[in-house]
Amino acid sequence: LGGTISRALQQMSNATIIDEKVLNECLNEISRALLQSDVQFKLVRDMQTNIKKIVNLDDLAVGHNKRKIIQQAIFNELCKMLDPGKPSFTPKKGKTCVVMFVGLQGSGKTTTCTKYAYYHQKKGWKPALVCADTFRAGAFDQLKQNATKAKIPFYGSYTESDPVKIAVEGVERFKKENCDLIIVDTSGRHKQEAALFEEMRQVSEATKPDLVIFVMDSSIGQAAFDQAQAFKQSVAVGAVIVTKMDGHAKGGGALSAVAATKSPVIFIGTGEHMDEFEVFDVKPFVSRLLGMGDLSGFMDKIHEVVPMDQQPELLQKLSEGNFTLRIMYEQFQNILKMGPIGQVFSMLPRFSAELMPKGREKESQAKIKRYMTMMDSMTNEELDSSNPKLMNDSRILRIARGSGRPVREVMEMLEEYKRLAKIWSKMKGLKIPKKGEMSAL
Ligand code: GDP
Ligand code: MG
């Protein structure tokens, strides 16, 4: 996808005269990419129409400005589509506030409830969690475990089957205890959909939440609009949280959720852990949607810290997309030294999240060293091949023996290699911009 957009923009920058044909071609190509990012068809069409209105080709000055103007117009248009025009209700510290979470089962509600509570607790709030999911077995246990880990008070029941009753009891109790952020987690699945929405309506009516947050899995694809709309029709959704942004999905469904609920995205979930939760920021999100991801910062970093004579080689390897074990070895060396290239790779969030999870740097370093020991027992052929089939059982056994590490660990290292290769391959065909060129976006 990154390649597609880069190619589209590249095509545009190569054309000396940007006429309507080029603009259309470019818009079509970017639209295809946005559809692949799960942006709703109707929204993509709206974007196209608006861009054509904004970009008046005759008015554009001659020269390379045109390209910048079109890029900027697309970027701005997408940012605008994520802005419903009014901010969401913001709870105030010290003042009782009830926040109800809704969303389909598996969207990440329970996880996100805890993240939301934890986020505020760190800022000095007194949050509390209420489990009004009486549908799923184990729902209360899950919330209890999360809450206990974060030392957040919780309320729920193993026996009561009426979600409205529990929600009301929980909210009442925590109001008495002077909690200022009372979070109500709800069920996401029912035998009949209509029953779920009726239940949401009842819980909302009984607890009178100040804010209802719709939780959406970034990977639900084109279903986002209908899902968000269905919830909005039964409860007064006032904000959106998009989860699993650490996965492959670019989260274009967020545009649909904003359009359907007329509410802003307020946070994104970026992992299963409690602190993998970020305040939503429009610009990086749109960059990612356009397939430019974190590349703009990444490229700037390359230009900034990698010695000039090493830049072409690194960029060449990146754009070829072939991630061999030898490249991995070199990157490990760099990361351990935290040399310039190591710094660069720590800029790629997914790359560093895989290799060096936050808070586990020591462990990760030891792991990387173990991996390098095993790789020292590899042949040149193995190190330079990008054919995953090459590493058969007998080669794995030989490497394990040679490095004195268990076979299981060699296999684990090769799995890690595959994961990193996948991330690396995203940059294949990447047009390497000149210094500062990406900053426009
Ligand atoms: P619920 O059914 O809506 O309450 O969803 P859960 O909170 O139980 O989450 C469903 C699954 O998604 C669990 O395995 C969570 O760990 C996982 N999950 C939730 N949020 C995220 C996220 O931001 N990133 C990742 N990778 N997993 C998440
Ligand atoms: Mg749940």
UniProtKB/TrEMBL annotation:
GO terms for molecular function: 7S RNA binding; endoplasmic reticulum signal peptide binding; GTP binding; GTPase activity. It catalyses: GTP + H2O = GDP + phosphate + H(+). It is found in: Cytoplasm; Endoplasmic reticulum. CDD domains: SRP54_G. The keyword Cell inner membrane does not apply. The keyword Ribonucleoprotein applies. Keywords: Cytoplasm, Endoplasmic reticulum, GTP-binding, Hydrolase, Nucleotide-binding, Ribonucleoprotein, RNA-binding, Signal recognition particle. GO terms for cellular component: cytosol; endoplasmic reticulum; signal recognition particle, endoplasmic reticulum targeting. Gene3D superfamilies: P-loop containing nucleotide triphosphate hydrolases, Signal recognition particle SRP54, nucleotide-binding domain, Signal recognition particle, SRP54 subunit, M-domain. Signal peptide: none annotated. Residues 264-277 form the SRP54-type proteins GTP-binding domain. InterPro entries: P-loop_NTPase, Signal_recog_part_SRP54_M_sf, Signal_recog_particl_SRP54_hlx, Signal_recog_particle_SRP54_M, SRP/SRP_N, SRP54, SRP54_euk, SRP54_GTPase_dom. It comes from the Eukaryota. GO terms for biological process: SRP-dependent cotranslational protein targeting to membrane, translocation. The M domain binds the 7SL RNA in presence of SRP19 and binds the signal sequence of presecretory proteins. The NG domain, also named G domain, is a special guanosine triphosphatase (GTPase) domain, which binds GTP and forms a guanosine 5'-triphosphate (GTP)-dependent complex with a homologous NG domain in the SRP receptor subunit SRPRA. The two NG domains undergo cooperative rearrangements upon their assembly, which culminate in the reciprocal activation of the GTPase activity of one another. SRP receptor compaction upon binding with cargo-loaded SRP and GTPase rearrangement drive SRP-mediated cotranslational protein translocation into the ER. NCBIfam families: SRP54_euk. Component of a signal recognition particle (SRP) complex that consists of a 7SL RNA molecule of 300 nucleotides and six protein subunits: SRP72, SRP68, SRP54, SRP19, SRP14 and SRP9. Belongs to the GTP-binding SRP family. SRP54 subfamily. Component of the signal recognition particle (SRP) complex, a ribonucleoprotein complex that mediates the cotranslational targeting of secretory and membrane proteins to the endoplasmic reticulum (ER). As part of the SRP complex, associates with the SRP receptor (SR) component SRPRA to target secretory proteins to the endoplasmic reticulum membrane. Binds to the signal sequence of presecretory proteins when they emerge from the ribosomes. Displays basal GTPase activity, and stimulates reciprocal GTPase activation of the SR subunit SRPRA. This is Signal recognition particle 54 kDa protein. It comes from Dillenia turbinata.
